Amino acid sequence: MPVYQYETIPSGPDEPVRRFEVKQSMNDTPLSRDSETGRPVRRVISGGFLMLKAEAGSACEGGACDVPAPQPCGGSCACHP
Fold first, then answer.
1. Which of 6, 27, 59, 78 has CB 3.0 to 4.6 Å from 41, enough for a Cys bridge?
2. Exposed/middle/buried for 31, CB within 10 Å: 0-12, 13-18, 19+?
3. 21-30, pLDDT tens digit by residue?
4. Which residue has the higher pLDDT, 65 or 10?
């Protein structure tokens, strides 16, 4: 069962955002409120992967696609020691 991240939606500039995780089925309706505070929430999209389906007659036909290589982040993220 996947774990989804949610964050509270601040009602003003001084209200802190609270992030939390919830284990839910993919078929469950996304949460609309934080069970602890009652504040409205939104699901945070992070990580994962993207699967592309090739159209018939496209350059990806047969499973080989001309996908550009990922660009380096420039060393400003956690992926560099």
1. 6
2. middle
3. 999 998 999 9
4. 10
Q: What angle do CA 15, 17, 19 make, to 5 degrees?
A: 160
What type of residue sits at position 62?
Answer: G
33's tokens: 């409120």
| Whether the predicted model's global pTM rises above the 0.70 cut | no
CA distance 72 to 24: 33
Q: Which of 59, 81, 79, 61 is nearest to 70 (CA)?
A: 79
The domain spans of the chain are 1-48
Cα-to-chain-centroid distance, residue 16: 21
pLDDT band at 67 (very low <50, low <70, confident <90, very high): low
